[in-house]
Write a sequence for this structure.
């Protein structure tokens, strides 16, 4: 099968970045990946949540300026944690010839986790960018895991997931290679 990645940027919207843990660092990692993907001719697909206080057209709904989609890049509108559910994400990726999704965005344990698992179920190989996803800022004594623990937990889970026939990798953004694999060596 041909290696054909696409970079997926999930819910990196102004209102969500305002409450995100390590927002600046995460945005910087994704921005660097986008620049490398574009240079390599790899598609960048942006997912934008609608609803739950994110009304289309509002400033909070807009993608953060550093990650704003370029003209002609696909933007997928979603209304649930699953970027595939009732959207045209799968058909868009198929039309682009995508075989592997490089997943980034917000929020680690909700939209990123759900979409990454659905990508595997839709038969895409997966790269979860270890430092390219984040969650909300919250108190470590609450019912949710502290932000750093949540990110680390999900990275570790994906390192050990097994989907037959699927490649799953967890890599820091600096190690994601968008170049096509070289010729097979004998």
């Amino acid at each position: 099968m041909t290696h054909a990645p696409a970079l997926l940027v999930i819910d990196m919207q102004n209102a969500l970045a305002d409450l995100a843990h390590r927002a600046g660092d995460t945005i910087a990692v994704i921005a660097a990946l986008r620049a490398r993907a574009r240079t390599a001719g790899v598609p960048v697909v942006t997912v934008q949540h609608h609803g739950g206080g994110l009304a289309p057209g509002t400033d909070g709904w807009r993608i953060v300026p550093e990650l704003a989609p370029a003209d002609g890049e696909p933007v997928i509108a979603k209304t649930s944690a699953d970027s595939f559910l009732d959207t045209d994400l799968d058909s868009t990726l198929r039309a682009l010839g995508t075989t592997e999704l490089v997943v980034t965005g917000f929020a680690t344990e909700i939209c990123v986790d759900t979409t990454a698992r659905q990508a595997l179920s839709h038969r895409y190989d997966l790269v979860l960018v270890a430092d390219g996803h984040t969650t909300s800022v919250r108190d470590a004594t609450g019912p949710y895991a502290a932000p750093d623990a949540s990110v680390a937990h999900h990275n570790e889970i994906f390192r050990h997931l097994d989907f037959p026939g699927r490649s799953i990798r967890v890599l820091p953004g600096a190690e994601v290679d968008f170049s096509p694999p070289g010729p097979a060596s004998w």
